Here is the input.
Amino acid sequence: MNTRQRIETVFLYGVFICYILVLIKILFLSRVSITEIFNSQRPVTRSMNLVPFHSITEYIAGSTANLKRFAFANVMGNILIFIPLGVYLPLFKNNYITNVLSIIMLSLFVEIIQGLLGIGTADIDDIILNSIGGCVGLIVYRFLLFILRNKNRVMTAISVISTIVGLPVTYYLLFMIKMRY
Here is the structure.
């Protein structure tokens, strides 16, 4: 491995860690602060949906424009936040089945933690949408590999895309959007 490849690898690990931190912030700390999560005085409301597509159907059936905007943002948001995971995972472990299962298990873990801690709705629809997003990311990786024909070129392309898109989005999400700390 030459110096350029080492720098790219370190950079990708760094961007991946930043992505995981943003994911934690969005999924666990957007509704309550880290100090409130384990506060025994915090009122906890647990909500769970185990019926596939129930939440999505309710959103679509909603009559108000605000509900439809929220539904669209929720569905697209759940898909979009897991696309980078699907792109980065093959860089570390290039086994498609293992990566798909990792995405599903991570999404399931997130929903269980949200339900247990009362910091969101544990929803099977979120698991489905997150898994779709992760699989889209895996397809993007495969597409890049097909076009560029070399894993090193794919790493370079993902490094460039991460710099142009990933870092500004991370900055925006962490510092510009008012999210609880």
